[in-house]
Fold:
Amino acid sequence: MFNNTLDEKHYAGTGSRGEPTAAELKEHVLECVDALRTSSFGDEEGRESLADILENCDPGHRCGSAACLMCGTAAKRFLVERVDRLWPEPTPLKSFALISPAFQRPLGALDSISFKSIRILTREWLSTAGFRDLKALGFIDLCHSIDRRTGKEEWSPHIHMVTPVEGSEGLTRALKATLESGAQAPIPVRGVTVRDRSRQISYVFKPRPTRTVRYATSSGKAYPTKHWLKREQQVESLMWLGRYSALDRIISINLGASSRQLKSSRTCASSTHDIGRKRMATQR
Structure:
């Protein structure tokens, strides 16, 4: 279990604006527990260890795991508050999504990329693009990407981040020139002006992985559709996320004292999580 630093108030959401209630989040976590215990993916001991951790996450005994949707949702609420403290309204903000083939992995091989590698590459790209001093708060997201034209399926970890408009002018163009595009990431960076803080900032830090289906790109109306993960991919994603705490998904960029506070909120995995880390590749 992780030494969770999230306040219990962050777990007490009411399900406003389409957000799940505490009861619905607990129900989802128990579904994840069942998926882990009935799956044949990877190492049985690692699955059982993570299932026990998630099952025992309750008020006063929070697991803090990135695989736990209750703790992930609490982390999201914590980070939304952090954005408001860093850049109070009416500070203009933009959100960016960075999607690169460098992050993508075949199904069954998600454990071959680490949060640390993702953080390092993100900072390298910003530096190469000429934005070494950009102040931003980012988050590691995950989707199972499916291309209906080619039948190709793969994991696509990616970055969402929020930053003030001032200082980020030209970032989209600079990153497009820096990031490699690919079939599953034809547009490697997207920048959007934040007009609805509550909705858009919450999306930046969404904890639950999705399944994204891409259709023919020749039509301007053929937008990707998003769904929840199927059971097999759900287990692989849980085992990957279970290596980390919910706050390990943060990428804090040039935020000074705030960055140090965020780092101090993160902790390392216990030996029970290391079991899953070492043996996830068994199924491949």
User: Anything to note?
Assistant: The beta strands are 93-98, 105-106, 136-147, 153-164, 189-193, 210-214, 225-228, 250-253. Residues 267-284 have pLDDT under 50 and may be disordered. Residues 8-283 form one domain. DSSP finds nine helices and eight strands in the chain.
